[in-house]
Amino acid sequence: MSIAVAHPNIALVKYWGKRDDALMLPATGSLSLTLDIFPTTTRVDVDPTAEGDVITFDGEPATGPVAQRITAFLELVRALSGSTASARVDTRNSVPTGAGLASSASGFAALAVAAADAYGLDLDQRALSRLARRGSGSACRSIIGGTAIWHAGTDDATSFAEPIDGPELGMVIAVVDDRAKAVSSREAMRRTRDTSPYAEAWEQAAGADLVAMQEAFARRDIPAIGELTESNALRMHAAIMAARPPIRYLAPQSIALFDAADRMRAHGLQAYATADAGPNVAFLCAADDVDIVRDALTTDIPAGRLIAAHAGAGARLVEAPA
Ligand code: DP6
Question: Is 229 a pocket residue for ligand 1 (Cβ < 6 Å)?
Fold first, then answer.
């Protein structure tokens, strides 16, 4: 029995686009904050008597694409370990699945750690990050606690996440809508690459943003980190919106929340908005400002839809389910 816990991460410089779909190599590097909220707990038991993997997802038997993606991932682990035995997998998310709250990141990070242990692989953090990447790109960053940089790399060996030093950061998540999104990030990424006239410009800008972000991290310059974060997110959404057929992840209330970030800054509070592949908005700020930022947002969105978060731990094995 191997049980692992992992947390979602939110990118400050986004990963949006693959250079290799099979190996899950990103077009550009990215940088993120792993949070201390919404853990995924995954248990893996190798069961040589089972005919095929048996997967339970949030208490229900998993079928269709969800099960296929997990089995495909287990095939990678089996290939690495030389085993052909099936597994029983039980995974529980405490984050609304598919709502742009990064559940695939915590999900595949927890699965990578639990499955590697269950199949007897002894992998270091870099190898676990590379493995998690094969399940979902952003999952390679959830292997790492706190702030992580994912080096795009040029092949399987060189594309992994590792910790990056910087200031103590926190986030406030504003939940605009917790229903599953209409277009998965995987499909939307592909559509952006194939049809958006801004896809190439996005890749160039994201590369430059990552360089500037690393410099801002080295200076521990929160205003610069925040400005890059907000602008990088809007650049990603601009490229997505220009795909055909178009994809709009941001809802009217999401845009209003970007306005709220402007308003907070006009009042001297350093808070910056970002959004992933969904309408929810995350506000980045200094770790010490999280409560003030949350309170300031209650004029925009009910307090029950605001979740305060700090830097969380990387994916790890635990003795018993959390
Ligand atoms: C907008 O990692 O979910 O959250 O690699 O296809 O599984 P796949 O995509 P995924 O995409 C994350 C996109 C993002 C930006 C980010 O986390 O960097």
Answer: no
Q: Is the CB of 134 under 6 A from ligand 1?
A: no
Q: Whole-model pTM?
A: 0.96
Q: Using a 6 Å cutoff on CB, does residue 93 contact ligand 1?
A: no
> Strand 86-93 vs strand 54-57: parallel, antiparallel, or unpaired?
parallel
The model's pLDDT over 17-67, given as tens digits with 9 standing for 90+, comes to: 999 999 999 999 999 999 999 999 999 999 999 999 999 998 999 999 889
Instruction: Please tell me if the CB atom of residue 11 comes closer than 6 angstroms to any atom of ligand 1.
Output: yes
pLDDT, one tens digit per residue, over 59-74 is 999 999 889 999 999 9
CA 115 to ligand 1 center in whole angstroms: 21
> Which atom of ligand 1 approaches the CA of 186 most closely?
6
One-character DSSP codes across 254-265: HHHHHHHHHHHH
Q: E strands within 59-202?
A: 60-61, 86-93, 147-151, 160-163, 169-174
> How does pLDDT run across 171-207, given as a tens digit for each residue?
999 999 877 778 999 999 999 999 999 999 999 999 9
Q: At what angle do helices 64-81 and 125-135 cross, to 10 degrees?
A: 150
- Give Cβ neighbours of residue 262 (< 8 Å, ≥ 6 apart): none
Ligand 1 geometric centre to CA of 186 (Å):
7
Q: From ligand 1's centre to the CA of 15, what distance in Å?
A: 6
